[in-house]
Every structure is written in structure tokens, then in C-alpha cells.
Design goal:
- This protein is of the alpha/beta class.
- The protein folds into three domains: about 80 residues, Gyrase A, domain 2 (2-Layer Sandwich), CATH 3.30.1360.70; about 250 residues, Rossmann fold; about 180 residues, Isoleucyl-tRNA Synthetase, Domain 1, CATH 1.10.730.10.
- About 55% of the residues lie in helices and about 10% in strands.
- A four-stranded parallel sheet has the order 5-4-9-10, sandwiched between helices. The chain has a three-stranded antiparallel sheet with strand order 1-3-2.
Length: about 550
Amino acid sequence: MKNQILFGLSKATGEKHIYLETPEREGHGDYSTNIAMIIAKKEDLKPIKYAREVVAKLLKDNDLAKIVSKIEAVEPGFINFFLSEKVLLSNLKAITSEKDRYGSSQEGKGETVVVDYSSPNIAKRFGIGHLRSTIIGQSLCNLYGFLGYKVVGDNHLGDWGTQFGTLLYQITSKNLNAQELSIDDLEELYVKFNKEADENPELWDEARKWFRKLEEDESEARKIWETIVKTSKSEFGRIYKILGVSFDHEHGESFYEDKMQEAIDEIRKKKLSKKSREAEIVEFEGIPPAILLKSDGATTYFTRDLATIKYRLGEWSPGKIIYEVGSEQKLHFRQVFATAKLLGWIKGEELVHIAHGLIRFKDGKMSTRKGQGIKLEEVLEESIKRGRKVINKSDTSRGLPKKEIEKVANAVGIGAIKYFDLSHHYSSDIIFDWEKLFVLEGNSAPYLQYTIARTNSILQKAKKDLVENNKEKQKLNNEELLLVRTLARFPEVIIDATKNYSPNLICNYLFDLAQKYNNFYNQHRIIEGENEGLRLELTESTGCVLKNGLTLLGIESPEKM
């Protein structure tokens, strides 16, 4: 529908690059464009007069007439399009027939996207700060996959670097058994080291020595490190299971240990590096230099990320690599991307850093190094506990087996946490607040889940097939029309959210749809009411679209609530 309108506009104006927007006000149509104002300004014409001339040409387009009921020019020169009821009603048929595939497409067929997300550091508890990258990244994977792209999700674990030198020093100097240490113990050792090093900076020399031993494959260092990694992965896997998050690969930084030298050699061969204070650096125009090798010859985060790009390009041939990593790494990725381009590795591929904002305290940033953080598991447990309270208060829970109540409580609690995060634009910082984190009504996942459960209940009560004869339907009332128009926008919202890396656009849409359905439900009888077949069809379509949207956000939709 959108493409047909764009084609008609192109013929009428001669312009190739035309954009249609969905107006904020319902009365301004399904689509609107300011193309007449843009052209009028170039040609020194009156915008509204030119807009009316364009509308006159569009009204003569027979193909366009099949999908729109009205086209209007309004001050100061906007052109608004209203889709016909016939087209809108036919879209309901598409929803009820395509069901969980409604909104999907094959626009990305043949293209590969790599998404780098979550990427926690080994030997540290999974904190609330890790939540954003994990669930935004998973949602981006879901969105790209829904549009037909081949998606490679990679959890780039932080399992290499000087921080492991600190742990190796702590474990060996205190004669500890690494196999007996929990992830909490490991983080505590890391925090203690940093406190001690503040008073005795020479301890960092010891940490660097131990990391060099690890890079040189010294047996004791390697054995302890492997134990730490195993303990950490086991803990992370448990949290990922609770969150319902999965990956295609979990290539940590250590995976690139034998691949870094090739990148270093290529940089040197192309004379892109130089010595500076015994370290080896890469310089750029307009941004600070990056350290390729430290003064003791140890590699850096920068070195490892370069090797990672080279591997991903060779292994998966992606058209785009997305890094869902916090905003504090903006400079780092500018340096890495600039170097990859200088090396000639990038030939049309896109390297994208989705710089998410931080979850932080009112008075500042969380810091594992200082022991200032909140366990993600504590947050998830509290959320499930609150979800359980909601379910126990519900009439629907009566008669449900305990196992089913627990399943629904998990879906509601985890869904609330995910939705709260995803409803913010990825670039926004989020102030940690226990109460705001557990929003269970209004613009929240539980509200959407409840609306889906309501549609399921209505369809179950109807106990008969949906009426398929459009001729029996009376003219749509205002609430029905608003609902069918909103449902028709879902495929375009998915495309917008994907192209802008913004799952929050899905959240905005789903909340708007649920509000319109509940308003419709409160004003009109569905079963045995007027237009019963249409209203059941609207109910089924709404439930389907809400469920599809939540699935893309990584949120479950219980059948009952």
C-alpha cells in the first residue's frame, strides 16, 4: 500500500526520493508527506497551491484509487492519504491467515547481519548494567530475522586482558583453589585488588606480569584462567535461561588469541602504526590514537576487536556488523572502525555501534571495580515475585495448577523488566529505581499481556468460526476504524524499528494498539453484538499482532492472566 502511494507520488511530482509518514493525529489520514512543500520551495511556488495540483493528478490515478478513499491537501502544503475500508478490511484477512508471520517479510533475503551483544566480563557477576545490551541485542536479532535477514548473534565475552592478571595474582599470592571459587568470590577478589592497588600502584606490575604469562601460555596461568572461564560461563548460562536469551556463537576475546598477530602484521606492513613511549599506537585524524600493543608487548581491547572484525568478515561475509555496546565505548569503536577502513577491509559493509545509555544510580555510574552494582538476578527474582502477586490476585488464576501459575508469573515478571528497558530509546540513560523498574500497569508488558489474554478469552467464549463474508459487515464505526487502521501499520513499524535499531518503536505501537482495542472493547459488545464477525476478527487480529510484537521484544504472552 505504501509503495503504491509512493509510486503514484513519483509519477505526479517527478521526484524519486519521497517519504511518507504516519501522522500523529488520526484525522490527518494513514499517511502524509511534505513533498509538495519541498518542491514548491525549490521552484518558488506557493506550497498549498502546488499540493492541490499534485492531489488533482493523483486523483486521476486508477491504481491509487483502488487503495485510497480520500487524498487531501492541507495548509501549509501537506498531502494526506486515507486508505479505503476495503483495503483495511482485507488486511484483517492477512493477519488471521498469516498469524505469527504477519509483519514479516523477505526484504533482507540473501543478506547477513552480525549482532554483537551482551558481552559480559568473565569473573564478574551478571549485573543490572548488563541488561540493556543483552535484551536490546536479542530484540535486534529478532527484528532482522523477522525481515528475512540471516542473523548471526555473537556473545563477545570479555575473557582476556589485564583484569585476568589481577585475578591470577590474587589467587596465586593467596594460595587459593580456583575450582572452589564462586563468581561472587572472583568478583570480590577483583574489587579487593583494586582497593589495594589504589594504595600500592606497584601491584599493577604484578597483574601485568601474570597476564603476560597467560598470553605466553604458561601452564599454571592457563589452568587457573580456564577454571575461571568455566565457572563464569556456567553462571551466565543460568541467567540467560531465565531471560530467554540465546546466541549463535559465544566467541570470547580469547578466541582471537591466535588471530591477532595477522592483524598486527598487516597494520605494520601498511605502516599504520608507530612507537610511542615504548608502546605501539595507531594514529588518526581528528580522534586520539589507539594503543595496538602496550609497552610490555601485551595486546589491548583495540587489538582484539580488530582481529574480531577480520574474522567476522571472512567467516560470515556480513553486509552489516552491529555492536550493541554501551555509550562509554564510543571513542573505542570510532578507532576500531577507522582502522578497519584504513586497512581496506571494509568494501561497502556497514559497521554500526548502537551506543546504549547506562542504567545508573541517581548520584553516578555503577562500578564493579568499586563494588558498586546490583545483581541482575536479584532484580529478576523480585520482579517474578511481584508478577506472582499479580497472578494470585487474578480470578483467572483460580483452578490453575501451581506449575502454570509459576510459569505465568515468570512471563509477567521478566516481561515487565524487559519492556521497561526496551520502551526507552537505546541512547537514553536509565536511573535505577526499584519501583519504576517493576511497572505492572499502564504502558507495560503486563498490560499488553493482559490484553492478549482478554482477546483469547473472548475468542474462546465465542465458540464459533469467525464470519468471513465481508458483505454482511456494516460500515465501520469510529473505534473499529481506528483499530483496523492501526493494525495495518504493524509491518511498517517493524521496518522502522529495525532500520533505526529502536525496539522502543515497537513498544510505542503496541501500547497504542492495546489502548485502542480496550477502548473499543469497553464501548461495544463483541459476542452477539452488531458486526459480530468483524469484531471477532478484530479481536483475533489484535491478539495476534500484540503477541507478534512482544515476541520480537523477547517477551512471552501467557494464554491466561
